[in-house]
Amino acid sequence: MAQLRFRIVGWVKALTLFAVAQAGIACGLPASATAQQREQPMQASHAYADYEINGRRFRVPERYLGGFPSGPANAKPGVFVKTSFIDVTFWLSDGKPSPVRGISLTTYWPKEAGRPSGGDEDFVVYAYRIEYLPPGQEKNEILPSQHLQRAFVQFLPASERTESSAYGLICYRSTQPGVHTVWCATPPGSDPDVLLMSDWLERSWPGGRPPNPSWRADIYSKADGLLISVRFPEVALRRWADVVCRTLTLVRSWQVPPDGSRAGCPGPRVTLNDRR
């Protein structure tokens, strides 16, 4: 009788382990990975991750990280993992983290209670590359204003572009048929130095435009060596200054120690009532 009970318990345990393994495989995990998960205790997720970029340290709240969640190695408080850049996502209006990580964004208005589903009053900003350039290293980089000058030579010559102003920016638009190319830049000598780019071939998209057109913006803060690339919706051009200010303010607050001396950007912010 004792042997029968032992065999039944053994069979139940085996069936349970098999079911756990099958569930893991169904979710895309190999059997070896599910086995390791059974053997290892669950690890608590830390509230932030520590990084070091070219000698400057950043402590980033875990919920902001735009890519995959940080692993145990770089989520230990006080362990500053060296990396070339970090990426984050956040809502423009209040700087709170997006519920959707940047790599999974299909729209700049992910569903969230109390948030809009379109328009330029509020949306998610994806800062997909945040770097720090120590003094002197900027000479080895193509900064936003330099990028614009190269574009003038390569594919935006004076004979094939128009020039206009919008919301404090100087914008250049390609006159080539079937090509959507618009580059907008801050005036020469500005700090931060900002360049916005939007481009696509009309024949590549039904109706002549992509479903979720974006501005790609490069931001270089000469004052503290921050070089940042972001994406935000093309319909929100008039909010470009708010995007820059919010991004710089957040990144500076994550420095160790935090830098509150230059919170935001110099000059006036673009307001919702600005209709220039």
Gap between N and C termini? 88 Å
Evaluate the radius of gyration.
Answer: 24 Å
Question: Helix proportion of residues, in percent?
Answer: 10-25%
Overall mean pLDDT: 80
The geometry reads as: globular
The major β-sheet equals: 8 strands, antiparallel
Structural class: alpha+beta
Count the beta strands. 11
- Order of secondary-structure elements: HHEEEEEHEEEEEEH
Number of domain modules: 2
Strand coverage percent: 25-35%
Low-confidence stretches: 1-45, 264-276
- Biggest sheet strand order reads 4-5-11-10-9-8-7-6
Helix run count:
4
What is the topological layout?
Elements: H1 2-26, H2 31-39, E1 48-53, E2 56-61, E3 81-82, E4 86-91, E5 124-132, H3 144-154, E6 161-166, E7 169-174, E8 179-185, E9 193-201, E10 214-221, E11 226-233, H4 240-253
Helix pairs in contact: 1-2
Primary descriptors:
disordered C terminus, disordered N terminus, 276 residues, 21% helix, 4 helices, 2 domains, 11 strands, single chain, alpha+beta, 3-stranded mixed sheet, 8-stranded antiparallel sheet
Description:
With 276 residues, this protein is α+β, with helices and mostly antiparallel strands. It has two domains: 2-36; 48-253, no CATH class. It is built from four helices and eleven strands. The strands form two sheets. The chain has an eight-stranded antiparallel beta sheet with strand order 4-5-11-10-9-8-7-6, with helices on both faces. Strand 8 (179-185) and strand 9 (193-201) form a beta hairpin.
